[in-house]
Design goal:
The chain is α+β, with helices and mostly antiparallel strands and about 270 residues long. The chain has one domain. The chain is about 15% helix and about 35% strand. It contains four helices and 14 strands. The strands form three sheets. It has a five-stranded mixed sheet with strand order 2-8-1-9-12, with no helix packed on it. Strands 4-3-6-7-5 form a five-stranded mixed sheet, with helices on both faces. Helix 1 links the parallel strand 3 and strand 4. The protein is globular and about 60 Å long. The two termini are about 35 Å apart.
Length: about 270
C-alpha cells in the first residue's frame, strides 16, 4: 500500500517562480566535444516544451509495481517523453509481518529529500510525500499508477517557453559538452538556478525477497543512480561543461531547476 511520510517545512534561498511573474526563453544545447560540422542546424533536435515525468517509488511498496509498469508503457509509446525513476528509502525498514522488510538496492535518502522538496513547493494536483507519486515538469503531482491523471498532466504544455536543442559536433561520442545559453535578461531572471546532470540505468529486473512485494520480479525503467550539480545559471560565468557520455545500458538527462523547489525550466536527454 502507499505510504505517506511527515516532514518539516523546507525553505529555499530561491523564490518559487511562475509564468504569471516571469516569461523566459532559455536555450539548452547539448553537443559532442570536437569540431563543429559544416551545418549543425541540419543535425540538431529541438523542443519548445518540457515533457518530463519523475516517478517516486520503492520496491517495498505493494502499490508501486503498477506505476512502474505504466512508466514503461509511457516510455514505449512516446519517444519524446523524458522519464526518471527515483527510489526513495523510507520503505526500507518497514516490516511486513513474516515477510519482513526489503532494502531497495536503488534507494537513496537524497531522492526522498527531493520528494520532500517537491511537497514544500506546493505542486498542483495531488502533492505530498507518498508512493507511487508522479511529478510532471516539476509542476503537477499525481498518483503514479493513475494513467488518466498522469496522461492529462503530460498533455499540458509547459508554462514557460523554453527552447531545447541537441547538436552532434563530432563522431567521438565519449565526451559530451553541455552548454546553457540565453540573453542577458533571461540569465539574470534565472540567476542561481541549478544546472543538474541526472544519470540513470535504462532498465533492470529485481527479485524481491521480502516485504510487501516478496517473491515478485519487478521491471524498472530509467532508474536514477547519480545526481550531479554541474553549475548554476549566471550572466557572468561561462556555462559550458564536459561530461562523460552514458555507458552502455545507461542514459542521462540535464535539468535546469532549483533543486525541486521550482518548475523544471529546461530538460534535455543525452544522446
Amino acid at each position: 500500500m502507499a505510504r505517506k511520510t511527515t516532514m518539516k517545512k523546507l525553505t529555499s534561498r530561491f523564490p518559487r517562480v511562475t509564468s504569471s511573474s516571469i516569461q523566459l526563453s532559455v536555450l539548452l544545447v547539448l553537443f559532442f566535444a570536437g569540431q563543429m560540422v559544416a551545418n549543425a542546424a541540419e543535425a540538431s533536435r529541438s523542443s519548445a516544451n518540457v515533457k518530463l515525468i519523475e516517478l517516486f517509488t520503492s520496491h517495498g511498496c505493494s502499490s508501486c509495481p503498477p506505476a512502474e509498469k505504466l512508466l514503461g508503457e509511457l516510455l514505449e509509446s512516446d519517444p519524446d517523453l523524458l522519464a526518471l525513476e527515483f527510489h526513495v528509502d523510507y520503505w526500507n525498514n518497514l516490516v511486513h509481518g513474516r515477510d519482513g522488510n526489503f532494502v531497495d538496492p536503488f534507494s537513496n535518502s537524497k531522492y526522498s529529500m527531493r520528494q520532500r522538496e517537491y511537497s514544500a513547493a506546493k505542486l498542483a494536483g495531488r502533492p505530498g510525500v507518498y508512493t507511487p507519486q508522479a511529478v510532471i515538469n516539476g509542476r503537477i503531482a499525481a498518483v503514479g499508477s493513475n494513467r488518466r491523471h498522469v496522461s492529462k498532466a503530460l498533455s499540458m504544455p509547459s508554462e514557460a517557453a523554453f527552447i531545447i536543442s541537441q547538436r552532434p559536433l563530432s563522431t567521438d561520442q565519449s565526451v559530451l559538452r553541455i552548454a546553457v545559453e540565453g540573453n542577458e535578461q533571461q540569465l539574470q531572471d534565472l540567476s542561481g538556478t541549478d544546472i543538474t546532470l541526472v544519470r540513470y540505468i535504462d532498465s533492470a529486473v529485481t527479485k524481491i525477497t521480502g516485504g510487501e512485494n516478496r517473491n515478485l520480479e519487478l521491471l524498472n525503467h530509467h532508474i536514477v543512480f547519480e545526481v550531479t550539480r554541474l553549475g548554476q545559471i549566471s550572466a557572468d560565468v561561462d556555462m559550458t561543461y564536459n561530461i562523460a557520455a552514458p555507458r552502455q545500458g545507461e542514459g542521462c538527462v540535464v535539468l535546469v531547476q532549483e533543486g525541486a523547489l521550482t518548475p523544471v525550466y529546461a530538460a534535455l536527454e543525452c544522446p
